[in-house]
């Protein structure tokens, strides 16, 4: 079957004219033509038709110059407006001693006015200028020489950060925190290079160009009338001072969000902030989860105008709209989702054809029918870019009226969908594909457990259809892995929660055939949509599309992983790119059920590149797809909405869409996805610590999952909670890190503990405020070994000093589970 309304042939590509030059006069005219309008940097760029990085840099320079001349005023972030009605389109500073044409002010007064425009009397402007706009050395002007680089701050530890340059291919620059000028994660800065250290470029921040989010989440400590906020983020390298008038109703020990209003010039001082949100006493469920939301900049509610727009949308589907769509309402259709799900954004239909093949429809909620461009709903969805799934709540991309109502494919209701329909035989061979707008009527809402029962027992309503789909899915799965897909999977931790949010249990979510069946058909739809758009035009430039791309891992990282796996007795030959997936899949099968499984699979996943959204059709290494998109979850992912719009546009014969705006949204969505994943991990970690707080003194079996100079991390096998055993707390010996061999070694006993070793630990403490768990090793070695080591330590204590220093004695055999608890340790 052919797609509906195939696109018209593309016209011959015209030679693109050179971009028009950007001048200071053009920039100022944008403000003088709109004297009462606030213009953001991006708005200005769009008005002036900016398309290159050089033009963007020019605009930034002109904005700064106009600000120095007092023609425009910086309000907040990157928003500007005309300074006043008498502002002249000046392009040069007046000569010393002369008067200005408009004001008649002497140059000395103008210099003062320029400083006011630069640093500002408005507190908003003032705090932006002090937020790192100072420079190394005595010269207060920014350095613009070739030795400075613009980049984005990525905090690494409390001691240093990396600045990621704008220019592609440039090395990241290490900047120690005392030279960061209080720049925060995501801030755009100008760095002056000053050599290298350990083979890595090193520099100092000389200017903070844009503060992304000058807010900090942490615990308030009040001393007298003064407050200090200790950040939750361990990468933060300063506390925030809060004066008495800025504390609000916050008290000592509360978890708060502070906005920094003043950044000091002296790096030895602390920034000053004001409490803008108080979450309550630290350690409580609501306080900590809300603090996580604030820490990652997640929204607490939808703006009122967004809610109003969503409530105003009619839930009646006009017959005129149905007439434009392919009607699937009389074909068997159902959804399969988690038992507690409310947003059903995908459904499957199945019908047997006369030729014996099966027509299987993957029907996706037609979100873009309701969320139209240039609406508040669209702007909010684009900004959020993804739903965020914390342990005890969902922060949706779209209001509930849409996500759980209009767009949710609820049973026994007519729903508008965008569908990918396939003709397949029972061997999984694909014959035809069709894409277009549809209307469906779901006959049944299955939970995964309901569907799994029909797969296992073959009984119940729609059991035949479910099993037919499952059989075809298994064939599709086999085809993927034959083509080189990677089988490593992360384990998903789930919680049983009490009504107050307290965790009653932690378990690992088990993926069964029902989950895999849905996954295979979603993968098929995503792949075929991407292939369809890619193949619409056979020559470059191809039609613009949102792709989900996953690069092949770097050879160096693969070799490091191979060396690591060798420590466990696994030999990997990863030097041949064509055999990487086969080698990794073989390893995955060999480690299944062994203590080192999670360690090796987790590290293998970290060895892989990260999947991102891009307009470049680079393929997906992990799935072994040449082209892949995200089409199947528009309720919770903005890139899927973008894919829907682009596909509809091309199906209706639309021309190619400009790449740059789509690529910008891809980058934004990738960044928001990463932020959401970090927030989800933080909420899981908090709940794990909260759960383990009730397990103090209990013994668990775990595996060594990480090693540092301070201690070793142990992951409990049953619930995946991870904590640390400090090296200084291991009884019976003094242990040191052997970094090259991924192990720790006892100085006296020569006992070795390495990655993947099984150990028994007792829960020592669980700190809700720091989200950390501490363990002690359980001593379960034979009694004769314990007695022998105790005697040796006693002999060491009683021996002459010189003998003790040079003996190096100690038991070199013994068990593998640690020394006597509480025994003396050699230093």
TrEMBL record:
Localization, UniProt: Cytoplasm
Ranges for region Disordered: 1-21, 86-123, 784-827
UniProt feature, compositional bias: Basic and acidic residues: 784-795
Keyword Nuclease appears in the UniProt entry: yes
Catalysed reactions, as listed in the record: Exonucleolytic cleavage in the 3'- to 5'-direction to yield nucleoside 5'-phosphates
GO molecular function: exoribonuclease II activity; RNA binding
The organism's place on the tree of life at top rank: Bacteria
Protein's UniProt name: Ribonuclease R
Organism: Hymenobacter coccineus
Gene: rnr
């Amino acid at each position: 079957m052919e797609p509906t309304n195939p696109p018209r042939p593309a016209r011959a590509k015209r030679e693109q004219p050179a971009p028009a030059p950007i001048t200071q006069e053009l920039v100022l005219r944008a403000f003088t033509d709109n004297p009462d309008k606030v213009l953001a940097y991006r708005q200005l760029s769009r008005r002036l038709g900016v398309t290159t990085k050089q033009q963007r840099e020019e605009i930034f320079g002109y904005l700064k110059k106009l600000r120095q001349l007092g023609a425009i005023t910086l309000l907040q972030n990157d928003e500007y407006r005309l300074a006043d009605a008498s502002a002249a389109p000046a392009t040069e500073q007046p000569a010393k001693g002369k008067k200005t044409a408009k004001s008649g002010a002497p140059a000395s007064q103008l210099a003062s006015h320029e400083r006011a425009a630069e640093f500002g009397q408005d507190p908003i402007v003032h705090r932006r200028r002090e937020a790192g706009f100072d420079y190394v050395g005595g010269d207060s002007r920014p350095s613009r020489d070739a030795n400075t680089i613009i980049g984005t701050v990525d905090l690494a530890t409390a001691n240093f950060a990396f600045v990621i340059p704008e220019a592609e291919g440039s090395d990241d620059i290490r900047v120690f925190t005392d030279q960061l000028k209080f720049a925060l994660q995501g801030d755009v800065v100008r760095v002056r290079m000053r050599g290298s250290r350990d083979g890595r470029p090193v520099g100092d921040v000389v200017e903070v160009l844009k503060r992304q989010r000058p807010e900090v989440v942490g615990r308030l400590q009040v001393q007298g009338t003064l407050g200090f906020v200790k950040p939750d983020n361990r990468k933060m390298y300063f506390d925030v001072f809060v004066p008495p008038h800025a504390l609000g109703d916050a008290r000592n020990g509360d978890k708060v969000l502070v906005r920094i209003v003043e950044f000091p010039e002296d790096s030895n001082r602390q920034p000053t902030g004001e409490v803008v949100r108080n979450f309550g006493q630290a350690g409580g469920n609501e306080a900590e989860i809300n603090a996580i939301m604030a820490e990652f900049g997640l929204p607490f509610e939808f703006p009122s105008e967004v809610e109003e727009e969503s409530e105003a949308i009619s839930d009646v589907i006009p017959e005129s709209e149905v007439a434009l769509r392919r009607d699937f309402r009389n074909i068997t259709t159902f959804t399969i989702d988690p038992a507690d799900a409310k947003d059903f954004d995908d459904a499957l239909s199945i019908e047997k054809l006369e030729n014996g093949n099966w027509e299987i429809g993957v029907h996706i909620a037609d979100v873009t029918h309701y969320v139209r461009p240039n609406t508040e709903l669209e702007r909010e969805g684009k900004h959020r870019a993804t739903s965020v799934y914390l342990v005890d709540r969902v922060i949706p991309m779209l209001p509930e009226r849409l996500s759980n109502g209009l767009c949710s494919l609820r049973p026994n209701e007519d729903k508008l969908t965008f569908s990918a329909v396939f003709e397949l035989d029972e061997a999984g061979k694909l014959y035809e594909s069709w894409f277009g707008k549809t209307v469906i009527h779901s006959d049944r809402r299955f939970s995964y457990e309901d569907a799994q029962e029909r797969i296992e027992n073959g009984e119940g309503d729609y059991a035949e259809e479910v099993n037919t789909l499952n059989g075809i899915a298994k064939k599709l799965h086999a085809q993927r892995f034959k083509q080189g897909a990677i089988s490593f999977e992360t384990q998903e931790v789930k919680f049983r929660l009490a009504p107050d949010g307290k965790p009653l249990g932690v378990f690992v979510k088990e993926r069964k055939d029902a989950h895999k069946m849905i996954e295979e058909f979603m993968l098929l739809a995503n792949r075929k949509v991407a292939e369809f758009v890619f193949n619409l035009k056979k020559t470059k430039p191809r039609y613009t599309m949102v792709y989900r791309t996953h690069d092949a891992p770097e050879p160096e990282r693969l070799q490091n992983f191979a060396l690591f796996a060798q420590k466990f007795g696994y030999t990997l030959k990863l030097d041949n790119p064509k055999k990487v997936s086969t080698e990794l899949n073989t390893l995955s099968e060999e480690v299944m059920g062994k203590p080192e499984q999670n360690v090796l699979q987790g590290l293998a996943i970290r060895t892989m590149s990260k999947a991102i959204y891009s307009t470049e059709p680079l393929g997906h290494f992990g799935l072994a797809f040449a082209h892949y998109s995200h089409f199947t979850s528009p309720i919770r992912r903005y890139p899927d909405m973008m894919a829907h719009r682009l596909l509809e546009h091309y199906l209706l014969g639309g021309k190619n869409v400009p790449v740059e705006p789509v690529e910008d949204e891809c980058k934004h969505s990738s960044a928001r996805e990463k932020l959401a994943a970090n927030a989800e991990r933080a909420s899981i970690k908090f709940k794990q610590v909260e759960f383990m707080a009730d397990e103090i003194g209990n013994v668990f079996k775990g595996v060594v999952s990480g090693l540092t100079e301070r201690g070793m991390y142990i992951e409990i096998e049953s619930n995946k909670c991870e904590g640390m055993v400090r090296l200084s707390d291991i009884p019976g010996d003094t242990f040191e890190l052997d970094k090259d061999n991924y192990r720790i070694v006892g100085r006296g006993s020569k006992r070795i503990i390495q990655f993947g070793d099984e150990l028994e630990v007792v829960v020592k403490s669980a700190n809700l405020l720091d989200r950390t768990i501490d363990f002690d090793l359980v001593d379960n070695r034979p009694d004769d070994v314990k007695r022998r080591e105790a005697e040796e330590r006693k002999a060491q204590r009683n021996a002459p000093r010189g003998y003790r220093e040079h003996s190096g004695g100690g038991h070199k055999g013994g068990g593998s589970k640690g020394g006597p608890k509480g025994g003396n340790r050699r230093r």
